[in-house]
């Protein structure tokens, strides 16, 4: 238990409503050798942050005013009044992966830094634009950029971060940088495809599990795949090695997203920084919902009926639901097996991610650290 | 006269209100050897379109649904109902430049095609986002994408076109492609800087001529500089040659923008597809306004007073002005010398653009065609 709590950087010892990660946790505890090496993960994330943040900040400083300030607010480096802030910059899994990826190719971790920075820039470009498109008012417990600085700045600064990503990589001036940028560009296109799918799914009654996995592969898998291979590419790895590392990252991303989908319904608002039943309020067709609607039986039938009626309601009517109505839907999803299926899916993706590492010849320590990161992703609580 | 009319692809023989291009035209006619070779320019633009459009369409076809459709609507290839359309795809100056740029480096024009396509993708990414940020409802005589398909699609498809630009170049897999992408990325950052300046200037009473030129250099000059050098880079030119061609493109862009600023106030709505006094309605701090406000004398003083009062009005009050009130402001700008100064500025930038070509060793025919394109840009009527 202490292992898991410590691995979650927002760990709380108070009991969580819904206890979202129990299934995954139990499964990990039951499989010897797969328990999370917390100390190692904490150090990896910290190393990623320490090596990446100064370079990321220097890159953002290149932006003209007021975009530099807006970006600094987005990253949590300053508050709404421009005062320095030690905000929550996220879990920093991507930078940690990019650095390990360089080491997997036999290079020093520093070789992966421009890749880590570029991936972080693209990730944050997508957050800025997605928050605006989705109308999300909160991220990481703070008002989103479009809410504070207006839609135009959210668009503009997102664009600028995307451009900056290519700039940072290509100024290395090496053939490896060209290959890395190409991979990042392709990943970005998949990121955009995923957001397009996400938007279109919101207007549909039913989304299949396959469609949902495809969307999540684009929206989350592609950039984690890039993070897990970009350091290796910068370190001179061949395409076969880079592809294997990308496959690890892709499945890690799908495991991450499955856990995210569980937290989106059953997560503790204090840990996630979101409302209770957050994804249900947004009518998000996430994995537990897709799996439940695809199941047989009374609970699935009742859920389908409720959700078909919900789909006809205006957003305002829908948001007027009281807690009990969302709780009812969440209970039906669970009864129909959507929660359990998603937990198992996280585990399946975790296993596939680790298997992808087998084809790569890398130092044993690096392999263990990549495995520890994969474990961490599955047991996190936010 | 016939020379100029034929050079403008939207030429009308009916007299134009305001006759926006007379000053530039007269100056060109008065300088022997600088008259526009219309036949040559028409062929150059046509060649750019013919070689670039199929590759551009194939690139856009890579986008997932519905982004491919939204992009096809934006480019004018289909109408709002999805029916094929032979819409107005713009003047195609950038593709023509990219192809000539390859020839300036001794390569075949086809070498410049991926560069032309990438530049067009970035240009249209910026149009999609700018139209949304600026709230512009019309472009090229049609409803803008955000108006037809909603803000989310305008953001998403813009992002996708930007990503596609890097993809198209980097899949060439050559060191030249890496250099070309780096130049395009830097140009895109300047494009974004320019839009940020444009937005911030709208909230200010006065913008100096220097600030206006800086903004226009970013917003228009940078991408034309890239178009004019990207073909040469792909053709293996060294940085010195590419920089000289970029300088030609930069000043060509400033000349283009000066003419655009004249058309934005005195252009014929039938040619420009915009409202009368379009830039004045949008309170745009364009060159003629900046030059007039920076001048001495009665007209400048009266204009400054009017505009300071205008700045206090709401957008709705402001748009309620009748034609005579805008006409009064336009007349004051002209009396204060803003129109004449901007005409002369277009000419100065045109001269500087041509001078930049002197340092590049290129075939005489290519030099003449680059000069003809520069002439065309200064005398255009839309």
TrEMBL record, chains A, B:
Record-linked Gene3D superfamilies: Farnesyl Diphosphate Synthase (1.10.600.10)
Chain spans, region Disordered: 1-37
Keyword Magnesium among record annotations: yes
Taxonomy, superkingdom: Bacteria
Residue ranges of the TM segments: none
Biased composition (Polar residues): 1-12
Keywords for this protein: Magnesium, Metal-binding, Transferase
PANTHER family, per database record: (2E,6E)-FARNESYL DIPHOSPHATE SYNTHASE (PTHR12001:SF71), GERANYLGERANYL PYROPHOSPHATE SYNTHASE (PTHR12001)
Family: Belongs to the FPP/GGPP synthase family.
Designated name of the protein: Polyprenyl synthetase family protein
């Amino acid at each position: 238990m202490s292992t898991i709590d410590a691995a979650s950087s927002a760990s709380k010892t108070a009991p969580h409503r819904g206890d979202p990660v129990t299934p995954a946790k139990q499964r990990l505890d039951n499989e010897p050798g797969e328990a999370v090496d917390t100390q190692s993960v904490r150090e990896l994330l910290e190393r990623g942050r320490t090596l990446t943040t100064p370079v990321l900040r220097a890159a953002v400083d290149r932006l003209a005013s007021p975009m530099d300030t807006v970006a600094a607010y987005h990253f949590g480096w300053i508050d709404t009044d421009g005062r320095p802030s030690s905000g929550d910059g996220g879990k920093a899994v991507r930078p940690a992966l990019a650095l390990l990826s360089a080491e997997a190719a036999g290079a020093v971790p520093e070789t992966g830094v421009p890749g880590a920075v570029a991936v972080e820039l693209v990730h944050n470009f997508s957050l800025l634009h997605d928050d605006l498109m989705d109308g999300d008012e909160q991220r990481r417990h703070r008002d989103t950029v479009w809410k504070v600085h207006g839609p135009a700045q959210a668009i503009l600064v997102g664009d600028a971060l995307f451009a900056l990503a290519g700039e940072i990589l290509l100024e290395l001036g090496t053939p490896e940088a060209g290959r890395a940028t190409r991979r990042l560009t392709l990943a970005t296109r998949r990121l955009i495809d995923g957001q397009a799918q996400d938007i279109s799914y919101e207007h549909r009654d039913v989304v299949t599990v396959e469609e949902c996995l495809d969307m999540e592969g684009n929206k989350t898998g592609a950039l984690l795949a890039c993070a897990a291979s970009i350091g290796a590419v910068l370190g001179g790895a061949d395409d076969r090695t880079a592809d294997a590392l990308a496959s690890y990252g892709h499945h890690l991303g799908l495991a991450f997203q499955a856990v995210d989908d569980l937290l989106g319904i059953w997560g503790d608002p204090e840990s996630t920084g979101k409302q209770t039943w957050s994804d249900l309020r947004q009518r998000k067709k996430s994995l537990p919902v897709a799996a439940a609607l695809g199941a047989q039986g009374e609970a699935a039938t009742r859920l389908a009926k409720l959700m078909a009626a919900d789909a006809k309601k205006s957003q305002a009517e829908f948001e007027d639901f009281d807690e009990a109505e969302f709780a009812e839907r969440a209970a039906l999803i669970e009864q129909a097996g959507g929660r359990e299926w998603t937990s198992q899916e996280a585990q399946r993706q975790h296993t596939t991610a680790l298997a992808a590492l087998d084809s790569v010849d890398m130092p044993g320590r690096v392999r263990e650290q990549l495995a520890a990161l994969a474990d961490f992703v599955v047991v996190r609580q936010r």
